[in-house]
Amino acid sequence: MTNAFKTAALFYAAVLSCGTAYAAKTVPGWPLYLAMGAVGGPNITPPTINSRGQDDDFGGRPVDVVFKYAGANGNGDPGMIDPPTNATRMTGDINILSGLNGHAMRVAIVEYTAQMSGGFALADFSNSPDADPASGGTYLMARHFISLAADTIALNDMPVAYDGGSYYGTQILNPDLMGAIQQGGFIGNVDGALPTGAVNQAVDQALCFLTATRSYFNTSNPNGLQSAPYLDKNYTGTPVSILEQLLADTYPVWSINSAQDPYWNTATDNRIGGTGGSYAQVGQWFNACVAHPKYNRRLYRRPDFPAGFEGWVQANNWLIRTFSPVGQVTFGWQDNMWAVGSGFWLHADLTRAEIASTYSRPLSDWLKKNAPSAVKGADYFVFDRYETDDSAAPGQAALYNARAWDNYLTAVGQVSARFDGAPIMLWQIPGSHIPYKGEADPEYYNDTPGLYVFSTAPDYFFGDRKLKPDLSNIVAGSGSTTNAAVGNYAMDCNAYRCAAGSTYRQYLTSNGFDWGRNNRTLASAAAHAHVFAILWGGGNTTNVIKNFSNTDDHGWLAAKIVDYYRNPVAIPTN
Q1: Which helix (H) or strand (E) holds 15?
Q2: Given this model, what pLDDT does residue 1 score?
Q3: Which of 264, 268, 273, 259 lies closest to 240, judged by CA?
Q4: In a 3-state reduction of DSSP, which class is residue 106?
């Protein structure tokens, strides 16, 4: 265990000794300091302390949580019951990494039970026997509920084990959904798609599938072995339990994650080979539950969920809590900074009262009216920024200066305050940093010298001593793109509310913020915005490690987090 990790561990133990005084802003099972996280995913081979290039290669680069989108395609896989293999495989990786790093870690699964990241759509709220024109699947709502609960069960059954403790995973629910509904004024459409009884029917079908004890005799031998522990063996239990038993017997996960597996496959309607094929075993069990949704109604007392969006939200919450009690698997719903129209409001000079009237009050009022259980029924609430490095999307309000981040933290803190101090997670925060002249290993766009990837969030939260207070050493290139010009980039000051003719360097220094030092913004985030965790990166956004299609910062952010753990920010009391 390195000195940094020992210091963090001692700090954590000291905070625990303070008892329940810190409970107001904490999330069960999470650190009592402001946690750090990153995007990852199951490795093909186990991680080592020095392995690099795989999705969970966090050896020597510790974080408190690693997140991954659920399912085969990361969009909720409408029409498919997804096996919880991302959760089970990542738990295996994180068990290894916690020991390697001397640092307790958790798994986070991002769930879509309804998805509007690609635009307005109602299909995920349907539970029809008719094939959905887009996905080809049937009974989409019930299948989504099963996929969600299967992940919950897997995370609950197999928490990460480290130093005698159990570290349960977490679930982040439905990114962009509430933001898109509010932004587009679609709540009437969504309520209309969820008539009385629709959610109850889908939950009943899910409970029938998930809770009945079943029997499965496995004759499948995907690897063609002469003998295997799982071959010609009878398994009993619930569907998720049988899957866990198969995997424990070394049944190949690649088969489960294919369209061909006879037990639990990944294909529309869980038909082997797709439309027209025979049903995998889970597809057969689901079909029986559609026809006769039987389960132990004394043990599983399903509420009468009301019609409309709020009833559907309640059902998601109830399924998670049914399969993992309070204090174990945690979860939170997500919302967007652009839900009120666009994200450009963040770039104005605003008072706290103006931030409340522009964003925090309209968002909170919308939630209280249309989906109060998304906050009050969850363990925390989630805000992202916009899943891209700043330099990649200037037209999407992504060029943040300190004023924008100040507004952001004020806004999410105000939303938290309107919900009794709900803990706030900042998620998919871009991890690239401000490039400076003479940097040994700058982060290049497409690995092309002279083209830089950059963002401001890590500099805002951690500071960078290599930057001069006036940013006189920021990279200042030529050309019209953010990546080439960097400090010389000509700002659109109508959108970003800056003095006409401002360059990016002038925009960043316009309010006197010193990017070269620690401005105690992390402490402010925890104390005033009720932030308990920051999760960095995304599939195309700079992360703590190089994985997926994100660019390589050569360990810059990882080093900042290691240094942060030497003196982490405590979660304060009310």
Answers
A1: helix 3-16
A2: 40
A3: 264
A4: strand
